[in-house]
């Protein structure tokens, strides 16, 4: 209905069109919503520190959730085994840190060796690959995971690296690039 | 016609001189008989001129006078009888002779030529008072004797109509008095409208109609004011219509798509803003380190996956 109305309003002289618009607001000329200015394409560029930190924070949250799930599982197991003497386990911080490191290593190694993305990478639109952006093989992914867990401070090298490389990237010739489907690339929007 | 004679005497009509008759010598015996008959006639006339008083004065005896009177009466009676017989014979003779004579004469004479040669028909017609003639004509009687149907059947009406300039006639018609005398109700009562409408090609008429001026005169607002919209809505299957419309626009699919696009918009916003934050931090650090050429942050070779290159081409970096 809107299109014929607009056509009818468009066929009127200016005075009549103004009067018609005052009486029938839906016949006012349609003004399309403002289109945001085209953003520079970043896909394929190596990611900076902020997005990688955010992705790592999300991954840390995932690891915490996994640890919590493990803790709940262990507690439930203990309760089932000896409900009378059951108390919530209180693991020492060193054990937690160790478990966290192990879980993080496994999680990184599986994710980067599989699709090149952890959950944090997925959300931030990052992908871990080789120097040319190719898919990492398992050994290099495992090595990278170990280095990242053992020496996380190496990430800060991204700040000063001209190629946005962390220490691990520089050592293993890997890279982290922006990689999310662009809605402008093929006109189809994929979340 | 008898009253149409002119009042004055007829003027002398020029007549041709009679042709000279051929001279035939009469027979001598006939001349002698004609002379004797003429003498007898003259003597009779002289005797007739004798006055009755002279007869009365004659010295005759009464018996002779009586006998003579009786004899005269007898002779007169006989003459009366003879006259009647002669008249009757003459009538029969005339009845037998006149038709034959007239026929013989007419066969020898061309009456039409005679009339044309000797009668000035134009002058006669000029002196006719046609108005008086027309006044005395009984038109009703004439019309009663006319077979109008037969005349109409022989008329070539198409040819007549082709020669009539209807536009001129129509332009000269004063329709007002004619219409004032027309009883339209009576005509309408006698019209068989069904038959008329059956012969009308309504499609052709509708095709020739210019609807724009008609619609310009229609007060649609007034019509809309008189519309009973409630009755219309009551007859509508609103529920079915709504269901059909909802099926057509796939409202549920639309809601799903819009929800998904909202979440994807949030994710895309986070990614874009993260990238912007990266660039901002890089620029700040580069400024602190007094770098003037920025960073080489693209990959060295072709990238895998779906990552497009820096120029937007998917997945291909610079070598």
From TrEMBL, chain A:
This protein's GO CC annotations: plasma membrane
Superkingdom, natural source: Bacteria
All residue ranges annotated as the RDD domain in the record: 47-170
Chain segments annotated as coiled-coil in the UniProt record: none
Compartmental location: Cell membrane
Pfam short name (any one): RDD
Keyword terms: Cell membrane, Membrane, Transmembrane, Transmembrane helix
Protein's membrane topology: Multi-pass membrane protein
Transmembrane regions: 53-74, 94-112, 141-160
Protein name: Uncharacterized membrane protein YckC, RDD family
Species of the source: Geodermatophilus ruber
Taxonomic path: Bacteria, Bacillati, Actinomycetota, Actinomycetes, Geodermatophilales
From TrEMBL, chain B:
Region (Disordered): 294-319
Biased composition (Gly residues): 302-319
Protein name stated in the entry: Uncharacterized protein
Species whose genome carries this gene: Geodermatophilus ruber
């Amino acid at each position: 209905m809107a299109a014929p109305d607009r056509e009818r309003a468009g066929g009127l002289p200016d005075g009549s069109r103004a009067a018609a618009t005052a009486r029938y607001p839906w016949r006012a000329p349609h003004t399309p919503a403002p289109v945001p200015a085209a953003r520079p394409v970043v896909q394929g560029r190596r990611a900076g520190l902020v997005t990688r930190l955010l992705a790592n924070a999300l991954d840390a949250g995932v690891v915490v959730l996994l640890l919590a799930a493990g803790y709940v599982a262990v507690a439930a197991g203990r309760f089932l085994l000896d409900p009378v003497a059951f108390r919530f386990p209180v693991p020492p911080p060193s054990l937690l840190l160790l478990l966290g490191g192990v879980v993080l290593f496994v999680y990184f190694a599986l994710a980067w060796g599989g699709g090149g993305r952890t959950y944090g990478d997925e959300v931030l639109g990052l992908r871990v690959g080789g120097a040319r952006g190719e898919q990492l093989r398992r050994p290099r992914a495992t090595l990278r995971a170990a280095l990242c867990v053992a020496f996380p401070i190496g990430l800060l090298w991204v700040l000063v690296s001209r190629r946005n490389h962390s220490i691990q990237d520089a050592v293993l010739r890997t890279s982290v690039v922006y990689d999310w489907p662009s809605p402008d690339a093929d006109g189809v929007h994929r979340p | 016609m008898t009253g149409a004679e002119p009042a004055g005497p007829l003027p002398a009509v020029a007549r041709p001189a009679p042709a000279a008759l051929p001279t035939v010598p009469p027979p001598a015996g006939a001349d002698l008989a004609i002379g004797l008959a003429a003498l007898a006639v003259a003597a009779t006339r002289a005797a007739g001129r004798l006055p009755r008083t002279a007869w009365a004065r004659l010295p005759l005896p009464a018996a002779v006078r009586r006998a003579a009177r009786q004899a005269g009466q007898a002779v007169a009676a006989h003459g009366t009888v003879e006259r009647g017989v002669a008249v009757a014979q003459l009538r029969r003779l005339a009845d037998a002779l006149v038709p034959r004579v007239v026929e013989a004469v007419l066969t020898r004479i061309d009456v039409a030529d005679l009339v044309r040669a000797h009668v000035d028909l134009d002058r006669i017609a000029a002196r006719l008072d046609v108005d008086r003639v027309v006044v005395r004509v009984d038109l009703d009687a004439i019309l009663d004797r006319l077979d109008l149907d037969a005349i109409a059947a022989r008329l070539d009406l198409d040819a007549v109509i082709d020669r009539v300039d209807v536009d001129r006639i129509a332009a000269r018609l004063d329709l007002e008095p004619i219409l004032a005398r027309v009883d339209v109700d009576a005509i309408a009562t006698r019209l068989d409208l069904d038959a008329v409408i059956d012969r009308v090609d309504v499609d052709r008429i509708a095709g020739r109609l210019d609807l724009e001026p008609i619609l310009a005169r229609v007060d649609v607002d007034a019509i809309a004011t008189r519309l009973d919209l409630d009755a219309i809505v009551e007859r509508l299957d609103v529920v079915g219509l709504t269901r059909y419309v909802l099926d057509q626009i796939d409202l549920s699919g639309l809601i799903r798509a819009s929800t998904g696009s909202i979440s994807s918009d949030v994710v895309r916003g986070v990614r874009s803003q993260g990238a912007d934050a990266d660039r901002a931090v890089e620029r700040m650090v580069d400024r602190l380190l007094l770098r003037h050429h920025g960073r080489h942050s693209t990959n060295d070779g072709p990238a895998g996956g779906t990552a497009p290159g820096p120029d937007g081409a998917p997945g291909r970096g610079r070598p």
